[in-house]
Every structure is written in C-alpha cells, then in structure tokens.
C-alpha cells in the first residue's frame, strides 16, 4: 500500500555520508532513524530513481538546491533527497551538485524505507534492480501533508517549484 496524505512516515533507517566529523556524527556513512530525524520538523522530501542519472542530476536535485532558501523562507527546516544508492554514492553526488548544507543526501541502499512507503519501482529491465519512484512530499512532525508521486518515466509533479507552490 502506498503512503497517503495524513499518514505517518513508516519506521526506517537512512544513511548519510558525513563529510565533517562532529559530536554524534562520525566521518563517513552514518545511520539515522527516520522517526528521530523527522520529529518536530517540517521537511521537504524528494526521491529520485538514482544518483548521477540524467533527469535526477540535471533537473530534479538542482531545483531543490536552487530553491533551498525559498523552502527555508516558508518554514521548511530541512530538505532531503532519498535514493536507492549507497551512502558513498549519495555523498559523492551531493558534492558534485554542491548540495552540502542545502539538501541532505540520504541513502536507502536496500530500498527498505522506499518499499515501506510503497513507492518502490522495478528497474530490473535496465539492470538497475529495485529503485524509488520519483516523488516529492512535505512532512510535518513525521506526518505527510503533501505527496506528489510521478507516473513512470515522468517529471511533472515532483519538482521543487510544484512543492513550493503547495507550501505558499
């Protein structure tokens, strides 16, 4: 079953490659509990089928990076990019896109969280296995307030501008 507006995010873990060691976060991949990350925050989440892929790298992620200040101005605490890639790949992709400090590049390497959302997609015909559908959502204190899931192969509803309009 696919998550709906009004549903609470499912339990799960995501990983993030941490570039600078700090208290509670060691250098390299760190594991985070989704419930803990989302507690008390307004979060814009978008998911992509894969890091370094054309639409994801040229349009989807850059839109959220470009509009990070606009999201903050509308009360969004964090922006998350989720992909079924390992945290090393997500870290490298974030560095290339200059997302550091703007968008958290979160790995769902085994697609467990993506499957729990009901937003997984089978890309095995192209040799890519299980991936995420392309989507965006607004989450407040762990509850989905907006959800924009794309049809397969489309990029029409999950862009940054659409989610910004829904916030405004």
Automatic annotation (TrEMBL):
Coiled coil: none
Keyword set, alphabetical order: Antioxidant, Oxidoreductase, Peroxidase, Redox-active center
Any one biological process term the GO annotation gives: hydrogen peroxide catabolic process
Active site, renumbered: 56
GO molecular function: thioredoxin peroxidase activity
Pfam families tied to this protein: Redoxin
Reaction(s) catalysed (UniProt annotation): a hydroperoxide + 2 glutathione = an alcohol + glutathione disulfide + H2O
Top-level taxon in the UniProt lineage: Bacteria
Enzyme Commission no: 1.11.1.27
InterPro entries named among the record's database cross-references: PRX5-like, Redoxin, Thioredoxin-like_sf, Thioredoxin_domain
Top EC class of this enzyme: oxidoreductase
GO CC list: cytoplasm
UniProt entry tagged with the keyword Cytoplasm: no
Domain Thioredoxin residues, every copy: 3-168
Family: Belongs to the peroxiredoxin family. Prx5 subfamily.
Function noted in UniProt: Thiol-specific peroxidase that catalyzes the reduction of hydrogen peroxide and organic hydroperoxides to water and alcohols, respectively. Plays a role in cell protection against oxidative stress by detoxifying peroxides.
Name of the featured protein: Glutathione-dependent peroxiredoxin
């Amino acid at each position: 079953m696919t998550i709906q507006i009004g549903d609470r995010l499912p339990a799960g873990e995501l990983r993030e490659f941490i570039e600078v060691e700090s208290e509670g976060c060691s250098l390299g991949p760190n594991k985070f509990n989704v419930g803990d990350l989302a507690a008390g925050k307004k979060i814009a989440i978008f998911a992509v089928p894969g890091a370094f892929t054309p639409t994801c790298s040229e349009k989807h992620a850059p839109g959220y990076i470009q509009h990070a200040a606009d999201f903050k101005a509308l009360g969004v605490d964090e922006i998350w990019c989720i992909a079924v890639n390992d945290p090393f790949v997500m870290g490298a992709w974030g560095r290339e896109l200059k997302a550091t400090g703007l968008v958290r590049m979160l790995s769902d390497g085994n697609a467990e969280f993506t499957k729990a959302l009901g937003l997984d997609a089978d890309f095995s015909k192209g040799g890519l296995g299980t991936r995420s559908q392309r989507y965006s959502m607004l989450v407040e204190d762990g509850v989905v307030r907006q959800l924009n899931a794309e049809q397969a192969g489309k990029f029409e509803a999950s862009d940054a501008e659409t989610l910004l309009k829904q916030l405004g």
